[in-house]
Amino acid sequence: MKKIKLTGFLAAAAVLLVTACSANRESAAPGTTAAEIVAETVAETQTSAEAQSSDGSQYSFAVQTGGTEIGTYPDGSSPGYNGIRVKLTVDGEEVIIAMYDNTAAVAFLERLPMENLEFYDLSGIEKPANVSDEPFSIADEEPGYDPVAGEMVIYRPWGNFTIFYGDFRHSDELVPLGKVESGLEVLVGKADDFTGSMEIME
Question: Mind listing the domains of the chain with CATH numbers?
Protein backbone atom coordinates (compact mmCIF):
# COMPACT_ATOMS: atom_id res chain seq x y z
CA MET A 1 0.00 0.00 0.00
CA LYS A 2 1.38 3.41 -0.99
CA LYS A 3 0.77 6.48 1.11
CA ILE A 4 -0.17 9.72 -0.61
CA LYS A 5 1.03 13.16 0.39
CA LEU A 6 -0.84 16.17 -0.96
CA THR A 7 2.12 18.55 -1.27
CA GLY A 8 1.29 20.96 -4.06
CA PHE A 9 -2.21 19.52 -4.55
CA LEU A 10 -4.12 22.68 -3.77
CA ALA A 11 -1.80 24.78 -5.92
CA ALA A 12 -2.19 22.43 -8.87
CA ALA A 13 -5.96 22.30 -8.43
CA ALA A 14 -6.12 26.09 -8.31
CA VAL A 15 -4.13 26.41 -11.54
CA LEU A 16 -6.40 23.98 -13.33
CA LEU A 17 -9.53 25.71 -12.05
CA VAL A 18 -8.25 29.09 -13.22
CA THR A 19 -7.49 27.60 -16.65
CA ALA A 20 -11.00 26.17 -16.91
CA CYS A 21 -12.51 29.47 -15.80
CA SER A 22 -10.56 31.27 -18.50
CA ALA A 23 -11.95 28.92 -21.14
CA ASN A 24 -15.50 29.44 -19.87
CA ARG A 25 -15.01 33.20 -19.84
CA GLU A 26 -14.22 33.16 -23.56
CA SER A 27 -17.57 31.52 -24.32
CA ALA A 28 -19.67 33.28 -21.66
CA ALA A 29 -22.59 35.46 -22.67
CA PRO A 30 -22.12 39.24 -22.41
CA GLY A 31 -22.83 40.51 -18.90
CA THR A 32 -21.92 37.24 -17.16
CA THR A 33 -20.21 38.02 -13.86
CA ALA A 34 -16.92 36.49 -12.66
CA ALA A 35 -18.75 34.76 -9.81
CA GLU A 36 -21.16 33.13 -12.27
CA ILE A 37 -18.28 31.91 -14.43
CA VAL A 38 -16.54 30.36 -11.42
CA ALA A 39 -19.75 28.70 -10.23
CA GLU A 40 -20.41 27.26 -13.70
CA THR A 41 -16.86 25.97 -13.97
CA VAL A 42 -16.96 24.25 -10.57
CA ALA A 43 -20.31 22.66 -11.37
CA GLU A 44 -19.30 21.29 -14.76
CA THR A 45 -15.70 20.19 -14.42
CA GLN A 46 -13.44 17.90 -12.48
CA THR A 47 -10.29 19.35 -10.98
CA SER A 48 -7.27 17.13 -11.67
CA ALA A 49 -4.02 17.24 -9.78
CA GLU A 50 -0.91 15.21 -9.15
CA ALA A 51 -0.25 13.44 -5.88
CA GLN A 52 3.22 12.19 -5.05
CA SER A 53 3.67 8.92 -3.20
CA SER A 54 6.28 8.41 -0.52
CA ASP A 55 8.55 6.56 -2.98
CA GLY A 56 8.54 9.50 -5.39
CA SER A 57 6.25 8.02 -8.05
CA GLN A 58 3.39 10.06 -9.45
CA TYR A 59 -0.32 9.33 -9.49
CA SER A 60 -2.96 11.26 -11.37
CA PHE A 61 -6.35 11.53 -9.75
CA ALA A 62 -9.48 13.60 -10.09
CA VAL A 63 -11.45 15.31 -7.35
CA GLN A 64 -15.14 15.47 -8.17
CA THR A 65 -16.46 19.00 -7.70
CA GLY A 66 -20.16 18.53 -8.26
CA GLY A 67 -20.31 16.78 -11.63
CA THR A 68 -23.12 14.36 -12.48
CA GLU A 69 -21.10 11.76 -14.37
CA ILE A 70 -21.94 8.16 -13.51
CA GLY A 71 -20.16 4.92 -14.32
CA THR A 72 -21.43 2.33 -16.76
CA TYR A 73 -22.34 -1.33 -16.97
CA PRO A 74 -20.93 -3.51 -19.78
CA ASP A 75 -24.01 -2.75 -21.91
CA GLY A 76 -23.36 0.99 -21.65
CA SER A 77 -26.23 1.73 -19.27
CA SER A 78 -25.86 3.45 -15.89
CA PRO A 79 -27.57 2.90 -12.52
CA GLY A 80 -30.37 5.13 -11.30
CA TYR A 81 -30.84 6.53 -7.80
CA ASN A 82 -33.23 5.19 -5.16
CA GLY A 83 -33.69 8.52 -3.32
CA ILE A 84 -31.81 7.43 -0.18
CA ARG A 85 -28.66 9.19 1.03
CA VAL A 86 -26.13 8.02 3.56
CA LYS A 87 -23.67 10.05 5.58
CA LEU A 88 -20.08 8.99 6.18
CA THR A 89 -18.58 10.96 9.06
CA VAL A 90 -14.80 11.20 9.31
CA ASP A 91 -13.19 13.31 12.05
CA GLY A 92 -16.31 15.46 12.28
CA GLU A 93 -16.49 16.03 8.51
CA GLU A 94 -19.29 14.64 6.35
CA VAL A 95 -19.32 12.77 3.06
CA ILE A 96 -22.81 12.52 1.55
CA ILE A 97 -23.52 9.58 -0.75
CA ALA A 98 -26.63 9.12 -2.92
CA MET A 99 -27.49 5.43 -3.16
CA TYR A 100 -28.26 3.62 -6.39
CA ASP A 101 -31.44 1.72 -7.13
CA ASN A 102 -30.30 -1.90 -7.06
CA THR A 103 -30.49 -4.92 -4.77
CA ALA A 104 -26.87 -4.63 -3.60
CA ALA A 105 -27.56 -1.10 -2.33
CA VAL A 106 -30.66 -2.35 -0.49
CA ALA A 107 -28.61 -5.09 1.21
CA PHE A 108 -25.93 -2.53 2.08
CA LEU A 109 -28.47 -0.16 3.66
CA GLU A 110 -29.80 -2.98 5.83
CA ARG A 111 -26.42 -3.11 7.59
CA LEU A 112 -26.45 0.56 8.57
CA PRO A 113 -25.58 2.22 10.84
CA MET A 114 -21.93 1.07 10.95
CA GLU A 115 -19.38 2.40 13.42
CA ASN A 116 -15.58 2.33 13.43
CA LEU A 117 -15.19 1.59 9.73
CA GLU A 118 -11.48 1.35 8.93
CA PHE A 119 -10.34 2.88 5.64
CA TYR A 120 -6.97 3.00 3.90
CA ASP A 121 -5.60 4.32 0.62
CA LEU A 122 -5.09 1.96 -2.31
CA SER A 123 -3.05 2.86 -5.41
CA GLY A 124 -3.73 6.56 -5.03
CA ILE A 125 -7.26 6.30 -6.48
CA GLU A 126 -9.55 4.72 -3.89
CA LYS A 127 -10.36 4.37 -0.18
CA PRO A 128 -11.39 0.77 0.61
CA ALA A 129 -12.98 -0.18 3.92
CA ASN A 130 -11.72 -3.20 5.84
CA VAL A 131 -14.41 -5.79 6.56
CA SER A 132 -14.05 -7.47 9.93
CA ASP A 133 -17.29 -9.49 9.89
CA GLU A 134 -19.39 -10.93 7.06
CA PRO A 135 -18.71 -9.73 3.49
CA PHE A 136 -21.10 -7.28 1.88
CA SER A 137 -23.69 -8.94 -0.33
CA ILE A 138 -24.09 -8.14 -4.02
CA ALA A 139 -27.60 -9.66 -3.75
CA ASP A 140 -29.08 -10.21 -7.22
CA GLU A 141 -26.62 -7.97 -9.06
CA GLU A 142 -24.33 -9.21 -11.81
CA PRO A 143 -20.75 -7.99 -11.24
CA GLY A 144 -19.15 -5.85 -13.92
CA TYR A 145 -18.83 -2.06 -13.85
CA ASP A 146 -16.69 0.87 -15.03
CA PRO A 147 -16.69 3.40 -12.17
CA VAL A 148 -15.96 7.12 -12.16
CA ALA A 149 -14.44 9.26 -9.43
CA GLY A 150 -16.79 9.57 -6.48
CA GLU A 151 -18.53 6.23 -6.82
CA MET A 152 -18.88 3.69 -4.01
CA VAL A 153 -18.77 0.06 -5.11
CA ILE A 154 -18.49 -3.46 -3.74
CA TYR A 155 -15.42 -5.46 -4.74
CA ARG A 156 -16.77 -9.01 -4.88
CA PRO A 157 -13.56 -11.06 -4.24
CA TRP A 158 -12.87 -9.28 -0.95
CA GLY A 159 -16.50 -8.67 0.00
CA ASN A 160 -15.71 -5.08 0.98
CA PHE A 161 -16.71 -1.69 -0.35
CA THR A 162 -14.54 1.13 -1.60
CA ILE A 163 -14.95 4.75 -2.68
CA PHE A 164 -13.05 5.86 -5.77
CA TYR A 165 -11.62 9.38 -5.79
CA GLY A 166 -9.71 8.79 -9.03
CA ASP A 167 -10.38 7.29 -12.43
CA PHE A 168 -10.44 3.51 -12.78
CA ARG A 169 -11.12 1.00 -15.53
CA HIS A 170 -13.86 -1.56 -16.06
CA SER A 171 -13.70 -4.52 -13.68
CA ASP A 172 -15.70 -7.74 -13.81
CA GLU A 173 -15.67 -7.78 -9.99
CA LEU A 174 -17.34 -4.44 -9.16
CA VAL A 175 -20.96 -3.73 -8.22
CA PRO A 176 -22.05 -0.08 -7.86
CA LEU A 177 -23.66 1.16 -4.64
CA GLY A 178 -23.86 4.94 -4.92
CA LYS A 179 -22.20 8.24 -5.79
CA VAL A 180 -20.64 10.90 -3.54
CA GLU A 181 -22.67 14.10 -3.76
CA SER A 182 -20.45 16.17 -1.51
CA GLY A 183 -17.38 15.79 0.67
CA LEU A 184 -15.14 13.74 -1.61
CA GLU A 185 -12.31 16.12 -0.75
CA VAL A 186 -12.54 14.85 2.85
CA LEU A 187 -11.42 11.41 1.69
CA VAL A 188 -8.77 12.74 -0.68
CA GLY A 189 -7.25 14.70 2.19
CA LYS A 190 -6.67 11.56 4.27
CA ALA A 191 -3.15 10.38 3.48
CA ASP A 192 -3.08 7.93 6.40
CA ASP A 193 -5.48 5.21 7.54
CA PHE A 194 -8.63 6.56 9.18
CA THR A 195 -11.91 5.49 10.71
CA GLY A 196 -15.45 6.67 10.10
CA SER A 197 -19.10 5.94 10.77
CA MET A 198 -21.91 5.60 8.27
CA GLU A 199 -25.66 6.06 8.68
CA ILE A 200 -28.80 6.65 6.67
CA MET A 201 -29.79 10.30 6.47
CA GLU A 202 -33.27 11.22 7.67
Answer: 4-64 (no CATH), 81-200 (2.40.100.20)
